[in-house]
Specification:
The complex is a heterodimer of chains A (361) and B (509).
Chain A: H1 10-37, H2 41-65, H3 70-112, H4 119-135, H5 138-163, H6 180-193, H7 200-203, H8 212-245, H9 250-257, H10 269-298, H11 305-324, H12 328-360
Helix pairs in contact in A: 1-5, 1-6, 1-8, 1-10, 2-6, 2-8, 2-12, 3-4, 3-10, 3-11, 3-12, 4-10, 4-11, 5-10, 9-10, 10-11
Chain B: H1 3-17, H2 24-34, E1 41-48, E2 54-61, H3 74-83, H4 87-96, E3 104-107, H5 110-118, E4 122-126, E5 132-135, H6 165-175, E6 181-188, E7 194-201, H7 207-217, H8 228-235, E8 247-249, H9 252-260, E9 264-268, E10 274-277, H10 281-285, H11 295-324, H12 332-342, H13 349-369, H14 372-392, H15 398-413, H16 417-455, E11 457-458, E12 461-462
Antiparallel strand pairs in B: 1-2, 2-4, 3-5, 4-5, 6-7, 7-9, 8-10, 9-10, 11-12
Helix pairs in contact in B: 6-9, 11-15, 11-16, 13-14, 13-15, 13-16
The chains are: A mainly alpha (361), B alpha+beta (509).
Chain lengths: 361, 509
Amino acid sequence: MFSKNEKISKRQIRRLLIYDLFGINTLLLPVLLAKNVGQDGVFCIFGAWVLILCYLAFLEKLHQRMKCGYIDCLKESGGVFFGTVFLCLYFVYCILLCGYALFTEASLIQKCLLREESFWLISFFLCLLAVYGIYQGMEGRARVYELLFWFLMVPLFLMLFLAIFHVNTDYWTPVFTTKPLNAAEGIYLVVIFSGVLFLLPFLAGYAKKKGQVVSAARQAAAFNFSINLVVFLILVGVFQVKALKEQRFPIVTLMSMVDLPGGFLKRQDAFMVAIWFFTLYAFLNTGLFYSELTFQHLFRAKGKFFPLLVAAVLSYGLAGWFYRVGGAEEWYFSFLWYVGTPVVILLPILVYLLEGRKKRK
Amino acid sequence: MPEAKLNNQSKKKKENKECITGNIKTDIARFQEIFKDCADIKMRQMFLGQEKNIECLVAYIEVAVANVLFEKSALGKLLNSFCGMEAEKLYDCLEKNGLGLSDVSVFDTYGEAADGLLTGDAVLFVDGYPHALKISDKGYPGMGVTEADSEKVIRGSNEGFSDSVKVNTALIRKRVRSPRVKVWEKKAGMRSKTNVDLIYMEDLIYPELLEQIKERLNSFEIDGVLDSGVIEQLTEEKWYSPFPQFQTTERPDRAAMAILEGRIVLLCDNSPVALILPTDYNSFIQTSDDYYNRFEIASLGRMLRYIASFFAMTLPGLYLAVMDFHTQILPTTLLLSFAAARQGVPFPSLVEVLLMELSFELLREAGVRLPGAMGNTIGIVGGLIIGQAAVEANLVSPIVVIVVAFTALCSFAIPNEEFATAFRILKFFFIIFCAWLGFFGFLLCLLTVLIHLAHLKSFGIPYLMPIVGADLSDYKDERDSIVRLPLIYLNRRPIFAHVRQRIKLRRKE
């Protein structure tokens, strides 16, 4: 009568994607860019933006060509065997994404809010909350982010604005010092961090109107890349590349340095962690949602409780693995670099080509 | 123009212009059609004249006409006189107002007669007489009814609902005098046989919504329904939620406003509390005088209430998180003064906060149960004397008293008692989690509440409308949410109203 279940509006999709991209990007990307390309990270962000726009243009064409849901197209295009392999690849990609999101968020909470608390307890609560959020359905999930958007963005913009006064523009130079291959790697790194956008084909069925997903994704990408750019410039301008490379969560450190006028609060970092708490939670939720979705189709599970439980347990285990095993993070990034990201980019292209061939026949 | 709108307009014109025929069968049928599904409107057929051969119809709103003292009222006397008259004399009397009643109006059309009835008077149709007579009687229940204790306003009516469902229905009809206001009646309770009325505007509601509530009302059998609260709990979809999914009100003007928004009002006999459905968070934050006052002050009031609803739930928890885990956020001088205030207090801050919060809840409970004047005394004794003594005895620190008092103020600023209760309960979860996990605990609780609210619906309406899901009403409902725009811009009914009946205000050309 009033709300269509499991269908979300363009504004909700846009905000959902902004949340998914924002947290992990602003938290980890500046350090990795500083390590790989130094000040030239700015141009890498630009380059990645162009590539993502091209990908979104392709996605629009894919959506027009798809006559059914993406999962059904995958199964139809690849047949039973390859369809299952494709879904398996997606499941692995999503569950790793989910595990890493859980690990990052729990680490952040432990580092910034609860130094003496157990990592396992923190990640357990986060996982439980993510399951609760997903179990209630897509519509409710989108509403949470829709509601929180300006409550989180306004303080963030304010803090970024105040941080500008700490920026030393001399630290932005010299530029164009990176070799082309390194620059390409930097661009690819930013693309890897936009991984959620490569899962958009799944989201098409949840939009209220056709075409809303790509349009919302364009706006979300524009917002996110702009913020990434500003954050990167501020962080380089405040810490210099040398110091930036050595930090784990420089954006949170930045928040502790900025003084609010009035002097009522001495440090805001504890409060500002809330922004990354919510955005990383959104990222975790997204990973869990796609894991549950692919698992459900892989094993033809009825209902979503069991797939969700499996996905949650696996993510929890993976987060623990990232926490306990040294080098697990490097392994994860290598996986994304060589397997995960190429696969999630190429599979929609494959589906597009196969759908086209089917049409011509 | 949409077809439904055209149909409605032509129907109304037809009602207004269609003349009374004088053929009592036709007149009765037509008038009954106009007031179809109106359980509160009574139509009595009787026979007048010496030979009791002139059929007539008296129509009236149940409590607006003194049916108990029918013989002593003007209407009763008129009918008694007519009973003893010959047919010719009777018609003559009708034409010339031969009985000399001062307040009688003659109507020629059904529309006029319907409007006359809705002013709270009786309408008389007589066979062979092509007009209707409006005869004044007791009229609508007035100010003598009762005052709403729990929903005080600065500007607006002081009338409140009473214990009688009939009076309450009439109080709503007094405010919305339209034959499209329908009243559906049901007996609830196997043994109590309590009257339950559903009141709604026929063309504004979604028929599915009406069916849904009727279905839920018919879905249980219970010994007795002694208050609307029983119905509320039995028909709520998510019974485990601390947030009410029906809005409650003791104010007829609030109920009338809800009817004009396309919502349904449920009245229960022996209960002065009406239930309004569907509802959302925003509706609980609104008060009647938000619409009677200027938009600036209404908006300020609403913003304060939104902030109050947040702090009523979170402030003690936030205090614990900051004091026990994240003292680095406070300036040194403030931190030192907090520490100095806590010096000598033997309990950890969690015990201190819980002690004060529980004492406050106890005071509130005691204040409610005691008779009026004594209740106030308890407030003063508890708040001032016990609070002061507790601080002086070093049982609690002054800052905790301030935090608890501010939290209480915030909960009192929420206009709806049932809604405020949800925040009062959740406050304790925040306290426990914040004491355990600091700001992380606070964020966990906040997100859990948000997820719960985001999924909660009241009869299909998302609970957080229009701040979320505003696309359902083309983002128009946002004009009347945290900020209330000037009335002239609030030209559309909210999401509750039928999609074809959204316009409520337009400028005349």
